[in-house]
Specification:
By secondary structure, this protein is mainly beta. It contains 1 helix and 8 strands, in the order βββββββαβ. A hairpin with a 6-residue loop joins β6 and β7. The longest helix has 9 residues. It is globular and about 60 Å long.
Length: 135
């Protein structure tokens, strides 16, 4: 899978339970996801800002809301899982990645289509200038 930066085993030191003789849990792994390639198209994503980004590389700023997640087509190189520039806290995946998870019974992932992946940090607030009332 393109975009997986690291796949490291997690050591479980112990398990506490009220039941006796509880077996050790199965193997767990921590996956590190790549950052820095694909960039969000801020206009197509419907971003609204309190303070817009000043750096075109990281594209981070003080976000008020966004309506969907759309990538700039020339920045995506076919990665299957990645953290996009502009919202490094979000993880985006390809359809191939989603299909692989479903085929292998991975159940602890929730997939939201990019066109429905909007978020509003200030619901009901129309204008960033309204924030001054709360400061």
């Amino acid at each position: 899978m393109a975009g997986v930066k690291g796949f490291d085993p997690v050591v479980v030191l112990g398990v506490k339970s009220r039941r006796r003789n509880l077996p050790m849990p199965p193997n767990y792994y921590r996956v590190s996801v790549a950052y820095g390639g694909p960039a969000l198209d801020m206009e197509a994503s419907g971003f609204e800002w309190i303070n817009p980004p000043t750096c075109n590389v990281c594209r981070s700023g003080n976000i008020m809301r966004w309506q969907r997640l759309a990538l700039e087509s020339n920045t995506w190189q076919g990665e299957d899982i990645f953290r996009p520039r502009g919202l490094s806290g979000q993880i985006m995946v390809s359809q191939r990645f989603k299909d692989t998870c479903e085929q292998n019974g991975i159940t602890n992932a929730i997939f939201t289509p990019a066109e429905l992946a909007g978020h509003d940090f200030y619901p009901g607030m129309k204008d960033p200038s309204e924030l001054k009332r709360y400061r």
